[in-house]
Amino acid sequence: MDGESPPKEDLVLLPGKVIKRGSSDVLNVDNPELKKAVQFIQDNISEPIGVNDVVEFTSISRRTIECMFAEHLGRTPYDFISEIRITRAKQLLGGKDVLSLSQIARTCGMTNTRRFKATFEKIVGMTPVQFREAEATKILHRRVAQ
Q: pLDDT tens digits, residue range 107-143?
């Protein structure tokens, strides 16, 4: 500012798109067993995996995995898997490619579109279609502001 008066009006900058880096894709946890479970989930999220698959992969009892998730992540393994899936679905819904909801559900490892919609609405607070429309509106506003 070099001694100049501040501008009279605030400058509003709309946020751009967040670019996900590989290094931010894995949660930073100290527990090696939990890290292995989380990595397995993230690596296989496009497959219809469940908690039993995590148990089988890690060779740790279901109860132990549930306790680790609760202690370190504050949620159940099932909820964690659902949240990762819905995070991926949000990326796809806001992306340039217009995929059907059944395509998005399958890409996120969910074979039942109805269950996908219900899970999405429970976690996000709106339906996938409402989310897609809201994202399209944001993009339109960004273009108009430029």
A: 999 999 999 999 999 999 999 999 999 988 876 656 6
Judge whether 73 and 80 are in contact, CB under 8 Å: yes
Domain ranges, residue 121: 28-145
Q: What distance lies between CA 76 and its chain's CA centroid?
A: 16
Token readout for 122 is 């429970």
* Residue 110 contacts residue 81 (beta carbons within 8 Å): no
- Cβ 46 vs Cβ 109: under 8 Å: yes
Contacts 24+ apart (CB under 8 A), 39-46: 41/77, 41/80, 41/81, 41/84, 42/84, 44/109, 45/81, 45/84, 45/85, 45/88, 45/108, 45/109, 46/88, 46/107, 46/108, 46/109
**pTM for this structure?**
0.77
What's residue 6's pLDDT? 65
- In contact, 51 and 88? CB cutoff 8 Å: no
CA angle 38, 44, 46 (to 5 degrees): 130
Residue 33 in tokens: 């067993």
- Tell me if 5 is assigned to some domain: no
CATH, residue 32: 1.10.10.60
